[in-house]
Sequence to fold (227 residues):
Amino acid sequence: MTEPIKIDVWSDIACPWCYIGKRNLEKGLAEASGDDDAPEVEVTFHSFELSPDTPVDFDGGETDYLSSHKGISREQAQQMLDRVTGVAADAGLEYRFDVLKHTNTVKAHELLHFAKSEGRQLELAERLMSAYFTEGRHLGREDELVSLATDVGLDGDAARDALTSGRFLAAVRADQAQASAYGINGVPFFVIDGKYGVSGAQPAEAFAQIARQVWAEHREADEVEVA
Fold:
């Protein structure tokens, strides 16, 4: 039995390139899944906070945040947002920076670890990113997070308890420590089988090629063991 490829993804739900990278990864894996010898893949998301000092209720829009955070003019910030909106559209995502609620994401990461413990991490990662970038939902507030958790079949009371207890915060910090150990200082970052690193929102074709290459390596390793 060939071991599946393990893809560990460091990302932040407030990172526009992370959602694009996620979608491109999914498209690439879907393409490879049509092969006669289709790769088997396990994807796990890991926590990375791009701006951990951001308040839960940021006063201003995304243009204001970018302008102050990067020390650029509002016009330059808007140009950056327009560019990423276009790239997102090419990936099939309709970003709405005009309604986006910039916030601290640590609670969203805690909820993702709770969802992982319940076997619903991939579904919740998609729901959170969609809510943040396309629906203008406030992901810094527990009530909003609990509502989104129930959208993917998680128990609302259990989700709220996970957030209020803070018991998954250690898992968030462990992910961040691992990112630091790997030298990851920007996301999205994809680690394949613990030995290959892929940085940035690569095209779907690149992910398909990587999956096929690594799957071939798995197959070769199996043949060597049998021999």
Observations:
- The two ends are 15 Å apart (CA to CA).
- The mean pLDDT is 96.
- The first helix runs from residue 16 to 32.
- The longest strand covers residues 5-11.
